[in-house]
């Protein structure tokens, strides 16, 4: 008896440890029970996926059986998807159809989410709304102090994103007011800026791509969004491959895996070959050891190391600009990109070599001096970016101590900058070896 109890105890302990290592099953939580029942009523058959909390990725889905290549991960019936069709068949439909100029599919979905959230218990979509994030970590939601710590190209895009959402809000105010007959409360308090920001982030970070035919009641912006309850709990990994599409015959959105996954492990999908700046901007997270990540070199940093008195400087900048060589200049895990080196080679051309600029853009070696100067400047830029990144990381650690309320936002920027530092340090080693061989 004792022996079997010991074995059972060991089994329980092993099961507990496995659960701790992989993820903590959250199926028993009321919000997930309600969501699963709601989905089942709409034709969703329970798969091998369970909601779970993972120490590195947070909330996600784990599999209760090993997945093989070409296995179906999930099949979500059309009735479970939230699209513009859903919006048009709601009480908002008649207001959208008569509004001129027509609203965009994006605004229609945002309006629906805000209205349903406001409806609370009365909303048919409540079980889904209850599991949506209450707040988002995209740069559009970040405090100014945190945005200023982002790398320059991302900081610029974050500001553009914020402007987009502000303009969307301002241009939609009149439409929101037209919905007043549907609400007892003033529409200005329901459809305020923070409500729109939350709805916009929900759509931007969670929708799957699903093309709908163009309809007259909407503006010409593409109608390609669908919110997919439960399916949207699947997290991203750059190291997996999946096939995802709407199955017209079965009228369901399906995801098939092209990678293996062990029992009780987190199931990942891939949102695309995005670098960390894109992942943070669009989805509000950073992937560790992301093979697609790179550190961008701004044109200001690029030109800092070339004499302003160079008579051909202006002509060189014009050539780089005309041929698209002032953007997407990067350091990656395999060192400086070909584009970065080509831009630096052209800027390093001597007065007697300038006529060879076309050959430079084709990748030809112009002279040993040109090659050596290019490597030397590349190293200087790399070390400058290392120092700049270390300085920002120091600022972040100080802010984390002083601003408790910004801890989550700062942790994300820190993760991004630490990844940048790893890439730059690896590039510095590669450049050092290149210099030795030259």
TrEMBL record:
It comes from the Eukaryota. Residues 42-272 form the SET domain. It is found in: Cytoplasm, Cytosol; Nucleus. Residues 389-419 form a coiled coil. It is an enzyme of class 2 (transferase). GO terms for biological process: inflammatory response; methylation. It catalyses: L-lysyl(4)-[histone H3] + S-adenosyl-L-methionine = N(6)-methyl-L-lysyl(4)-[histone H3] + S-adenosyl-L-homocysteine + H(+); N(6),N(6)-dimethyl-L-lysyl(20)-[histone H4] + S-adenosyl-L-methionine = N(6),N(6),N(6)-trimethyl-L-lysyl(20)-[histone H4] + S-adenosyl-L-homocysteine + H(+); N(6)-methyl-L-lysyl(20)-[histone H4] + S-adenosyl-L-methionine = N(6),N(6)-dimethyl-L-lysyl(20)-[histone H4] + S-adenosyl-L-homocysteine + H(+); L-lysyl(20)-[histone H4] + S-adenosyl-L-methionine = N(6)-methyl-L-lysyl(20)-[histone H4] + S-adenosyl-L-homocysteine + H(+). One of its GO terms (molecular function) is histone H3K4 monomethyltransferase activity. Its EC number is 2.1.1.364. Its main location: cytoplasm. Keywords: Coiled coil, Cytoplasm, Inflammatory response, Methyltransferase, Nucleus, S-adenosyl-L-methionine, Transferase. The keyword Nucleus applies. InterPro entries: Rubisco_LSMT_subst-bd, Rubisco_LSMT_subst-bd_sf, SET_dom, SET_dom_sf, SET_MeTrfase, SETD3_SETD6_MTase, SETD4_SET. GO terms for cellular component: cytosol; nucleus. PANTHER family: SET DOMAIN-CONTAINING PROTEIN 4, UNCHARACTERIZED PUTATIVE METHYLTRANSFERASE. Forms a ternary complex with TBK1 and ZNF268; the interaction with TBK1 is ZNF268-dependent and leads to TBK1 monomethylation. Belongs to the class V-like SAM-binding methyltransferase superfamily. SETD4 family. This is SET domain-containing protein 4. It comes from Oreotrochilus melanogaster. The gene is Setd4.
